[in-house]
Specification:
Elements (H helix, E strand, L loop, with lengths): L1 E8 L5 E3 L1 H9 L6 E13 L4 E12 L7 E12 L2 E11 L2
Parallel strand pairs: 1-6
Antiparallel strand pairs: 1-2, 3-4, 4-5, 5-6
Length: 96
């Protein structure tokens, strides 16, 4: 779902480039394991260019929790690569 060279800005402003660096960042995270839920509010697609824009809200939950412990807004840039939609970049901003 991500390009190999994906560019991610985390909710606290940390900039991560590449899937491998993202895996390392996640593996070094302290605290309880988390899961994330994105809720798109708007998606705009340009099939001719193979590009899409998605924006919405996100929530973070501890692995055993049902109530969110953090959240905010996000935007994502999607690119259609060899017929498959993948996230090229995404920005998260923590607001909760």
């Amino acid at each position: 779902m991500l390009t190999d060279d994906v560019l991610i800005t985390t909710g606290n402003g940390t900039l991560i480039q590449g899937k491998e660096n993202l895996k390392t960042y996640i593996s070094k995270a302290s605290g309880p394991k988390m899961y994330w839920v994105r809720t798109p509010i708007e998606i705009e697609v340009n099939n001719k260019l193979g590009l899409a824009w998605e924006t919405g809200t996100w929530k973070g939950y501890s692995e055993s929790g049902e109530k969110s412990v953090t959240g905010g807004k996000y935007s994502a840039h999607w690119s259609k690569i060899e017929g498959v939609w993948k996230i090229k970049s995404q920005l998260f901003v923590t607001l909760e």
